[in-house]
Write a structure and sequence with these properties.
By secondary structure, the protein is α/β, with parallel strands linked by helices. The chain is built from 15 helices and 18 strands. The longest helix is centred in the middle third of the chain and has 26 residues. It comes from Oncorhynchus mykiss.
Amino acid sequence: MAVSALTGFSVVSLLSLGYLSWDLMSPNQVESESVPNFRDRSPVPHPPHIIFIMTDDQGFNDIGYHGSDIQTPTLDKLAADGVKLENYYIQPICTPSRSQLITGRYQIHTGLQHSIIRPRQPNCLPFDQVTLPQRLQEAGYSTHMVGKWHLGFYKKECLPTRRGFDSYFGSLTGSVDYYTYKSCDGPGMCGFDLHEGETVAWGQGGKYSTHLYTQRVRKILAAHDPQAQPLFIYLSFQAVHTPLQSPREYIYPYRSLGNVARRKYAAMVSAVDEAVRNVTYALRKYGYYQNSVIIFSTDNGGQPFSGGSNWPLRGRKGTYWEGGVRGLGFVHSPLLRRKRRVSKALVHITDWYPTLVGLAGGNASQTEGLDGYDMWGAISEEKESPRLEILHNIDPLYNPARSGSLQSGYGIWNTAIQASIRAGDWKLLTGDPGYGDWTPPQMLPGFPDGWWNLERHLEPQKSVWLFNISGDPYERYDLAEQRPDVVKELLARLVFYNRTSVPVRYPSEDPRGDPDLNDGAWGPWVGDDEEDHWNGVYHKKTKNRKKYKLSRTKSFFRRLNTRIMSNRI
């Protein structure tokens, strides 16, 4: 069947087989239904105060209510009294999740579909995007951001205070030391990274970042009048990203853990849990709580090699398996109509944009091309989710799968391309999704290699996978060969989405971004009046490397190191 005929292909065949209870939307339906509908929303008397809390690299198994060995009593209590989102999806690495939260758009629609924004890249969130905090400002909100930005800073126009936040305090890069705020982008390329607004906060280092950021949030709450103006705070913790650092008192409760990395990581999670307790206490103390909405979300899956755990999900940070893209999330609010429950509604990180704009009394339909949906009815009142599918991503620059081809994709899609989509119960992956391991907590660093071998799962000749996620959430039973009809349907959806994508923004690093040229600190280095030169897709440079004969073990670890995101991502 021709590609053009498949672009708006329906799923009548799947409906008849009972695998889906809805029609995959045609392009016209997608365009008409992409604008959120606010008619069914229950009115909120006064716009609520919104506190969005994001943690970095916290795994699916790194919260108490998922049976973790890490103690999170505050998060457990808030989630238990609110709505747990157990079908919630994020992106596998930092920048993509943050860009989708702030814009309400898939990466393919902002040009950020490949990797992260590096510190020396002349790249940031596209200037033509109207951000979530800008829409909230239009609705009368006072907007504040505290913590990790990681959406680019090569120009001042890229900074949080130019993208909708009235104030900003935090770090611009992807990873910093928790005490010194030193951030390195390779050997010898280090600089200070703590900023107050648009200036370097030289005198405020030395305090543990989780505590420092919490202190700033409490200061904002104390200074603001909750009756005079609604407040939006985006608290983007650096934790629990590497480096693994925490005050000693948080490590002591985990002294019995034999895995040192897990012990330190658990301590960092506990520090975050305490920080959330202090923020919620301040909300009550200063009169915000009764008219507030607290949202908790991770940005991507955990990294087992740095103490995280996504067990029993497959994969890890940097992969499109469930362990990389299925996130921790919950909503806690006195405004919820139906509380103390678990929601299985399909929710994506892009949905927060129209949901929060709607809660604020704004109209998200003024922002054209949103990929998110207003989910408040599904979250608060247990209504049916308006979301039917999720495009996890299409990355044309990621290492192509050697076994992939257009022929493998039935002449519809080149399966060498890294891509993934969730539609109803089904999930399709093509290309190289990343290492698809199931990593038990016992297998983490310091434990016998035999644990690793129990769950290794290598399929070097494959480039297409299909799973019924509702029935097989751990992705253990690949149905691609048994259900070619479903595979074709979802490949057609990838074709449709790919036609709507914009060129990848992934420029080469600019030597002018060296912090040594900026008084030793990371910060903007390009003038706002200097024109950008985007020439379509930017390809990564490859270097010729000498080939060595390695044993099977050494060869495996070399491939592992080249494919897994480094600690500084």
